[in-house]
Amino acid sequence: MKKQKFSINKFLRSIALAKLKIESELKTLDREPIHLLEKRLIAAKKYYPEMKEYLQYIFLEVMKASNECDFIIFHPDKKEIPFLQFWVGNKKLQMDFPIVDENNHLKYMKKVRNMLEGFNFTFKEVKINNMQYGYNKYGYEHPDSGNGLNADFGEDAKLTTEFVYRVFAQIFKEDFTKIKFIINTQK
């Protein structure tokens, strides 16, 4: 009888270990699409001689993969600041330009806001929960709040590409052809 209990316990333990292994593998599979997407996007660069065309391709692909990808960040080649971050959800692009002490974005905020207005993003102050939102395209919080600018680019990859290009070239004063990107998820 004791030998039979031992076998049952051993069997139950092996089932529990198998379950943990399967759960671990499923978590790995959840991350795999992002990894593969990033590899595919990097490999595709050789097919796009123009950086703007390549960037537009990146935006179109991350919008298609919005179930696996939460955001994409663009930064200069050798440093991580300054950066532009885009949330990707429901196959739409939402720029997030956070203002915190660590990123030194405050000095760029007014220029980025002016750039948005130059792209015909309109702003009309509407307060909801202490957040000021634009009437139809973008909103911002005061720099003291620590949040910064956000803008809704919708599904317009071409407009988003041009905006990123101009921000890096004219505001950040960085070589646009050498920007890097990070694709990630919060899951």
Keywords:
187 residues, alpha+beta, 6-stranded antiparallel beta sheet
Major sheet details: 6 strands, antiparallel
Our count of domains comes out at 1
Categorize the overall geometry: globular
Poorly predicted regions are: 25-31
Spatial arrangement of strands, main beta sheet: 6-7-3-2-1-8
- Total count of strands: 8
Backbone structural class: alpha+beta
Structure report:
By secondary structure, the chain is of the alpha+beta class. It has one domain. It has four helices and eight strands, in the order ααβββαββββαβ. The strands form two sheets. The protein has a six-stranded antiparallel sheet with strand order 6-7-3-2-1-8. It has a two-stranded antiparallel ribbon with strand order 4-5. A hairpin with an 8-residue loop joins strand 1 and strand 2. Helix 2 (51-64) crosses helix 4 and helix 3 crosses helix 4 (157-171). The chain is globular and about 70 Å long. Mean pLDDT is 76; it is low at 25-31.
Structure in a nutshell:
With 187 residues, the chain is an alpha+beta fold. 45% of the residues lie in helices and 20% in strands. It has one domain.
